[in-house]
Amino acid sequence: MGTIIKDYSYTPAKIKRGYSGKSLYINLSDLRIEQKEITEFMKEKFTGGKGFDLWYLWHAVTPETRWDSPENEIVMSVGPLGGITQYAGTGKTLLCSISPLTDIPIDSNVGGYFGPLLKFSGWDAFELQGKSEKEILIFIDGNNGRIQIEEAEEYPEDTHLLAEELTKKYAENEDDMVNVSVVCSGSGAKHSYLGMLNFSFYDPRRKVCRFKQAARGGLGTILHDKKVKALVVKYRGVKPNLNDAADISTINKVGVKYHKEVHDLDHKQNKMRQIGTANTVMIMSQYDLLPTRNFQTGGDPEAVKISPEVFINEWLTQGLHDGCWYGCTMSCAKCADHFLITTGPYAGQRVTVDGPEYECAAGLGANLGVFDPQAILEENFYCDTYGIDLISFATCTAFIMECYQRGQITREQMGGLDLRFGNSQAVLELMHQISRGEGFGRIAGLGIRKLKKIFVEEFGADPKLLQDIGMEVKGLEYSEYAHKESLAQQGGFAMATKGPQHDEAWLIFMDMVNKQIPTFEDKANALYYFPMFRTWFGLVGLCKLPWNDLVPADNYKTDSPAKVPEHVQNYVDLFNAVTGKHIDNEELILQSERVYQFQRVFSVRMGKGERKDDYPPYRSLGPVSREEYLSRQELYDKQLRELQKLDPETMDLDEKIAATRRYREDQYEQLMDAVYRRRGWTENGIPTPERLKAIGMDLPELLEVIEPKL
Amino acid sequence: MKVLTHKQELCTGCLDCELACSRAYFKTDDPNYSAIRIVENNRTYRARKCTQCGECINMCTANAIYRDRNGVVRIDKKKCVGCLGCVGFCTELVMFYADDLEVPFKCIACDICSKACPEGALEILVSRVKEN
Predict the structure, then answer these.
(1) Which site among A16, A120, A122, A191 is 20 to 30 Å from A474 CA-CA?
(2) Residues on chain B bordering chain A, Cβ-to-Cβ distance under 8 angstroms
(3) Domains of chain A
(4) For A319, what's the count of Cα atoms within 13 Å in the CB-facing half-sphere?
(5) Which domain holds residue B51?
(6) Could you report the per-residue pLDDT of A117-149, keeping only the tens digit for each?
């Protein structure tokens, strides 16, 4: 037991219509604990969740603040719908901070019980600022209105051990363990910029802590830098209307309708209840979208070895509830039980592995040339328990592997690690080195942007090639979708505010397969609507997956199947039923746009939110290498003929690659122009005062940032 | 295990069973609070009530549904968070809820309705087969 160094009592605020009206502020430098009011202004302009996070973060930092500045904050908030139990995916917490990878605000969303239990403990939002001198943990007791800060040096570092120990420590008995949730990172966060946060939820059937990850952008690295080992919340007494909803009847009705849809249709659609998000691996491979060997190709004949059937039949426990919050009948948080670890500090032990998600199978699998489900699960386990964002790790390691493959770096420069594609043992060893802070592991987790600089300046690599194949924008690594044939998705990634993550827009099927958005204007409209709509989930505390990973049986008959209109209506109804407000579809988008534009201006303020920051590496747009061109030569030759009126027969390979590149880069420029216009931005990507005024966001502090840029 | 059975040929649709159930558990004559529902179709009457199949046990998002010693599927009210997942997932449509209740309700084969049935159309069957 560590010494308790701060003990603070409070009266938990009663939630009214989805909001407790209070936020918690803890300063780690002087152990100050304060309560702040959630104002009507905040609710009106920012709604909740990511909106509240960004608003607090804006006031905490200056343009000079970096990820490890004491004033940088980790802010989290669950949103007004968060914690309702009757609909699927209602336990999402949104976190924001200034990222070590990008130097601008990152946002990351996560399931698990922490956010809803925090809200039921009386807090709509939670700011952590400053830096502790000693390693500490923070315990919030929501039933008794108590916050304790405790020295935490002696607790284990890695998540699966730490969360279990803390859950047992704070629960009174076995039944009480579901009422405890832990946020922590792991040893990997100490030695990399890829540290992520695990949010726990106790699984009473398996009797283990399960985890969801706030993975992107280095939040775990920041928590570690603040010397916070864990955050723990405990709240006993979750019931269906702790949110004090205005209209519980509608919530029940909409919820039961959705649960029935899952029951009747999931097994015919995406099989989320059997395999979770990894259901798409083979589809991605078939459509050339599965990033393989650092996005060089979009699939592989070997992908069948990591197909959904393999994981369902051989690895993942079937038939048990796997939701990361109550009421989630989509139940996609699958896991492999009694999995035997073969390498590293936990070799020989049997563990429960949460996953693999699609990003894991694609990233730690295909993108590293690893087509071995057992190796993928072990990589998955170690990323999670070490607290490493597996998306950034996978994309970063894929980049390292290609640099090695192309002779840009040597085995000696990697400390002897033979990081060739497909060598899962070397990948695992790299993870262990990151965890221990040894060897190549000391630099491998700094992210692609910093690695490019090191490889060029210290190892003599070719800067142009590295720029082309390093899959990052703004410093953040791409998530795991190959997308060379979808111009809209190229924009969806590279123009995403925080960096190339698909949570803003996933337009590949609409664009490339179904050809529903052929013109620049169509694509720009999609790159307006979907980022706005998807932002909304993060404002209110919801998960996106129940929106379109299951669709009503007659969805295809609607005007816009990609929007899943019936589910959008569910969300409007749920929002109104909880808050007592009267929004419609348009107001929903407006709620989002206020925060979306705010975040763009915030990025501008921090130095990265202009046109120059929205360019992708060429690997995103087209074939960099001869092998890539040749892998789809028929397609590329056809495009030269049809789109550019060139005769590929008269061109050599390098000429064809160059012509393709000129065309595609020009297309991307035109897309940027169209998207910027549609979003109400200048040609340089700056939100205009007129646009901010039109959505009620012409706040003086925002105008002050953009005016010099106009 | 115990399960309530219904003999269609004896049922007259008097609904005394619904009334007995809602009165016993919720002190109301409102049939929306009954765990047995008699459905008329062309002057024949079918009873909707739990078959104790137990498919809701593993899907429960709060691990609150269990089979008791008599094989009856029951909801632990302390653990239930009222997500209504079981209501949407019940293939027999016999997990019920009401907006003023925090947890759903179902037939627990208690015998109250069968005792109330003037025609002897309802009976609790006890078998030795245990499921799940």
Answers:
(1) A191
(2) 58-63, 79, 81-85, 87-89, 91, 97, 99, 102
(3) 4-234 (3.60.9.10), 266-477 (1.10.569.10), 487-550+582-709 (1.10.599.10)
(4) 6
(5) 2-123
(6) 999 999 999 999 999 999 999 999 999 999 999
